[in-house]
Structures are given as C-alpha cells and as structure tokens.
Amino acid sequence: MALPYSRMFAGLIPWYGILVTCGMGLSIWLAGREEKRLGLPADTAVDLALVVIPFGVLGARVYYVLMSWGEFESAPLSVFYIWNGGLAIYGGVIGGIAAAWIYARRKNLSFSKIADMVAPGLLLAQGVGRWGNYFNMEAYGPQITEPSLQFFPFGVLIPSAAGNVWHMATFFYESLWNLTGFCMLWGIRKKQKDSGNIFCWYLLIYGSGRFVIEQLRQDSLYIGSFRASQWLSLVLCITAAVILLKRSFAGTRKFITVTACTVLWLLRWSLLY
Description:
Layout: E1 8-9, E2 13-14, H1 15-37, H2 44-67, H3 89-107, H4 111-129, H5 131-136, E3 155-160, E4 163-168, H6 170-188, H7 197-214, E5 222-223, E6 226-227, H8 228-248, H9 254-271
Helix pairs in contact: 1-2, 1-4, 2-3, 3-4, 4-6, 4-7, 6-7, 7-8, 8-9
C-alpha cells in the first residue's frame, strides 16, 4: 500500500481521473439533496455543475500555468496539454466560484444559497480527489528518517535514484482533514441562520488545513519566495472569520474587539508556520 501498484485502472484509465470524477459525482448528488431544503429550483445542482465544472477545470489550469510559467515558456502550446497533468485545486475553486456567481446572476438566484448548497459536497470531493495524488505519487512531504514512522498511511514510498524513499503522506493528511470537515459541515448545516455561513465555514476549514499542510509539501507553487496556496489560504481564513464574527456580533460593540483579536491570532498562528 505504501507504493501504488499502478497509476492506471485496468491499464487504461488514470486512477486520478476516476477519483476526481467520483468526487464530482458525490458533490453533485449532495448538492441535489440540499437544493430543496435551501429553497432553490429543482435541478439547480445539475444545471450548476454543467457550468461550474468546465470553469473549474479552466481555472485550475490557468492558476497552475501562471504559477509555473517556466515549464511552458519554451513551448507555449504545451499550455493546452492538460492530459499531461498540471491542475491546481485553488484555481479550480476560484474558477468554480466565479462561474457560480455568474450563474446566480443570470438565473436571479441567491449566490450565498448556491454556495451553501455546494460547500459540503465540495469538501467531500476534495477529500476523495486527494487520493489521486497517491496513485500519481505526488503532493508528498519531507523524507521520513525515523524508522518508527515509516509506515502507510503516515508515509508513502517515492521512487528515487537511490531506491524507494519514505516521505510524509501530505495528500492523506489533507484528505483526512477534508473528510472530517465535511462531517462537521453536514452536521451543522441545518443550524445556520444566515445564508452563506456554511460556505464561510468551508473556507475556514479547508483554508486552515491547507495552510498548515502546504508548508510540508515538496511541490508547492510559489510567488517569489512565498507559497501561493498557503498565503491564499490565510487570506480566505481571515475573510471568512470576519464575516462569521460580524454576523455573530452584529449590532454590538464586541464585534471590533473580537474580530481584531481573531485576526491577530490568525496572523500569529500563521507565523508559526
């Protein structure tokens, strides 16, 4: 198990594609269950998926290309060779959010309700899709030199010139975090009074986990010396926290104090990593 037997299912279909597709299917199914509860028209989830998925793939590719332009500079046409890999999940999320916002405007629907409808399933899909990194032998962390920690799924074996080497299985850490976060979102979704709260909780859960785990990854995308996804996660966490606190302390003087303390705590926490 520490070393996948093959990247392909039956020697034909990439496991990565199968897992991502399964994650998308689960996300659409769960969104379909939520649309009625949130007062959205029938088939909103399916119609939205037809718009969001293409934009999400496009966003994932554009994000990766912009952050890794050196790989494509000598052969610009390879930008379109998406079958060779090169998708960034944050780009997919940004592209999907943009498409959902446009869809909501065109259909005269509440964007916050649509975001709440999608958020739990999206976190579940991300948890499932991360296992594609296992089969591709990517998104791993530093080498594990302590023998007692050289076991799966804490670590995975990565081929190198010196043979198979144990590395931290960061894909598994993030998958476990996302699946736990999904259970939390699914449990609290009916208790939220304001539209958009579940989506804000999604940003907090996914963003905080990604911020910490990204620090361990060996294949991060950088802007200068900064890990792009890590600092984007921090921005999303702070934004979501401010919105949730503003709603919780609306009309009270505690809002400014509590918000300032929370933002300072998040910034201090980020400096630890």
